[in-house]
Amino acid sequence: MSDVHNYEHDPDGYLYDPGARTAMARLAGEDGEDGDLRAFEASAAVRTACHAVERLRAHGSEGRGVSAGALDLLIRLDAREQGISIGELARAAGVSSRNVTGLVDTLERDGLVRRVPDPNDRRSVLAEITPDGRAWIEDFRKPSRLAMKALFQGFAPEELVVLRDLCLRLAANQQRLSAHLRQIGSPQ
């Protein structure tokens, strides 16, 4: 898939993707209202932005021998003084426990994470970042700052707050919708 997009400005000066607009208009249907098309276009734009951020993260982490998923776990573990259970990590990352177990296995083999007994439950173990893991994160910090500065070039601080809010509102809506669908037994 090509990383090159040809964006244009609409009459109000906002960027849009003409190819996505054409595809989304067809998906929204002829009887769809303008709001439907705007929602479909916004969804396509969020997906494009998500892919852009993930490509940047993957480029930065895989060049250092860690997948983007493992990087996410390392960042979460680095923010904590004590370990965290696999289940808690999975919930925080929005992935399955099986996925997190595999990532922790890999990070443990690389000496960046270790499993330690849970002091509150002797049957359980916690994942904990090692000193080598903290050093890895520290080495990753400066290039990450530079990448984020470049990625969000031209954004005002207030825009970043609004962008964060909008993205988290989307995620919260999706979580509510998923919970509702689970409750009524509808396929997701």
Describe the structure.
The chain is mainly alpha-helical and 188 residues long. Helix content is 64%, strand content 10%. It contains 7 helices and 4 strands, in the order ββαααααββαα. The strands form 2 sheets. Strands 1-2 form a two-stranded antiparallel ribbon. The chain has a two-stranded antiparallel ribbon with strand order 3-4. A hairpin with a 2-residue loop joins strand 3 (113-118) and strand 4 (121-129). Helix 1 (18-28) crosses helix 2 (34-62) and helix 3 (68-78) crosses helix 5 (97-109). The longest helix is centred in the N-terminal third of the chain and has 29 residues, at 34-62. It is globular, with a radius of gyration of 20 Å.
Total DSSP E strands: 4
Please give the radius of gyration in angstroms: 20 Å
Question: Helical content, roughly?
Answer: 55-70%
Question: What is the end-to-end distance?
Answer: 27 Å
Overall geometry comes to globular
Spell out the helices and strands N to C: EEHHHHHEEHH
Main β-sheet: number of strands, strand sense, barrel status? 2 strands, antiparallel
The low-confidence parts are: none
Count every helix, treating DSSP H or I runs of 4 or more residues as helices: 7
